[in-house]
Amino acid sequence: MTSAFSRFPDRLQAAITSRLGWTSLRPVQELAGHAILDGYNTIVLAPTAGGKTEASMFPLLAQMVESEPKGVGMLYIAPIKALLNNQADRLGMYTEMLGLSRFLWHGDIKAAEKRAFRKQPATLLMTTPESLEVMLMSGSVAHQEIFADLRAVVIDEVHALAGSDRGAQLMSVLERLIRVSVHDVQRVGLSATVGNPDTILDWLQGTSQRPRCKIDPPKEQHKKEIRILMQDSKLDIANRSSMLAQGKKSLLFCQSRALAEEISGAMQNRGIDVFIHHSSVALEERTLAEERFANGHNNCIVCTSTLELGIDVGDLDAVLQANAPDTVSAFLQRLGRTGRRGGGANTTFLIDNSAALLQAIAVIELARRNWVESIVVSDRNWAVLVQQLLAMTLQATSISPGDVWAQLGTIPDFKGIKRAEFDRLIKHMIKTNYLYLTGGLLAIGTEAEKTFGRKNFMALYAVFSSPQQYEVYTVDDQPIGSLEQKFIDTLTPEISCFLLGGRSWIAQSIDRDNRKIVVAPAPHGKKPTWGGFIPQFLGWEICQEIAALLKSKTDLVYLDKDAKLVLNTARRERRQEVIDRIIWAEEDQQVQWWTFAGGRINRTLKYGLECLWGWEVRADNFQITVTGENLTPAMFEAAIVEVVTPEFWKSKDTQKYLLEQLPNYRFSKFQQVLPDRYALEMVQGYLLDIDGISKLS
To answer: Which pTM does this prediction carry?
Structure first.
């Protein structure tokens, strides 16, 4: 069979050979090369550093070389700016060696550079979903000319976008943009870890009429070194991490900014360079950490999920994990950061409590069986439907409801919404002044201008709501990072201390009008604090795996001696939970049901039982505790039978109860625009799992 490499134009083959020293491609690149050259919409699955970028870019660049586009011929979309910046030189080299060009467009790029791009567009445009919409909305960007010859789009880390609000926004913007192209734009998604690639490929397909293809070659089996080391405290985690990181380049993943700050602070002055990397650390600090880390050999970045995606920080010797990640996908992403240059992948878990130990083992065991979470793609994304409705109205100045529906009704994330429901939304938005109707056309209303109109409607382009942030500066006006409003409210100037950027600070002054806090280094001996952290719900599979683990007597070779002792103690003390499942305390009129069903299913049970009988119900990831006057086993069993039926959740009484009782969480800035019934559906989608509850029947 002819190789994909030999199908490339001579110019591309020569460039790859001379610049990269390659005369052939990896298996995943061969398979993807044929599929993409043959015109398929494609999802490419390969481990981190498995060659996915080249698998997509080379065959697409081959098409650009054979017939150079007028304007932008290809889009490269990444979920975060840091990944774009990280890939810029690499993709710049690939285009430059063919005499083509690439441009990086996001919020940190200077206006003068963007003006130059508008005058002379690059062949390859690298951007984020939000920046792409800004371009589409901008009157200064002649998108109908720039994108008229658009031929392909590559979405990197597609699993981080599919099933999210940002993914729904991206698909909506792409469909709007693709309408100006003369081509059926080819779509390519890249991912290392996803449990349901066929679903993601269906989502990626959109309105394209091209055939589709999944590239998922057999994974090369490399040695993996997994260890779990039990520690007595967070300080012990920091001490042991410092020892393990000596003479190496390491990443230490933490599940929260609070834990990252605490551990990085305790690791200072222990013979290694320690950096901190999370979303509240100033961009300058994060960039400096990445640069210094990439060039060092005795250092460790303490990070959250900000370094989970494919940002290249050079050859890594070790991945460390403080306690346990919430998902198998996160574990695999982190494990995949090592072993990128032929060495074995490795992760060492440092754990200070039995709950985290059980969670870590469950994640590892599921990964060993090649199980990974599936991405759930909603087809009723109300928040982004509102955002796109407002954006399209603003872009056109005025637009008919029919024209909006003709475009948005084709988006996978909205296909479950009926035209009658869309019309009901329009009617509500007109009534609440987010839109107004003039001559049969929709226009932006006064309430939309007041809510989203600041800075030329910039608030309209970012679909997810970030908590209100205060910027943190030193007395010399040096940026340190940012803190959320709820934490700022707990601070007292000249008294309160906190950790940020791996250092301890004391609050000097708080400017609430300009959302700015000025700090100074904390006096020695002052104990810093941090705001609260709300853990994510664990899923059904991880919780069920923990139940199986507690029942099992299997010895696990990757546990150290202390971890084995903690596991065996948990198995002995919690055996009744797993065997009996339902435990009665009749004198307290209380029952515990150890479902091991996960947080969302248990929370669904909580609201259902409270709705039925008015019982007091507490829920976590593993159990519900029900307390009620005259509560009996027969009543409880009958209630469970009713609550797990779909009909119960569809009833008007249940819907009314949920509307009154579900917390008024703001999951999206566009939630406030929705009618109550659709806002309730949004909250239910985040907090409850009504379909999943049937697993308990």
So the answer is: 0.85
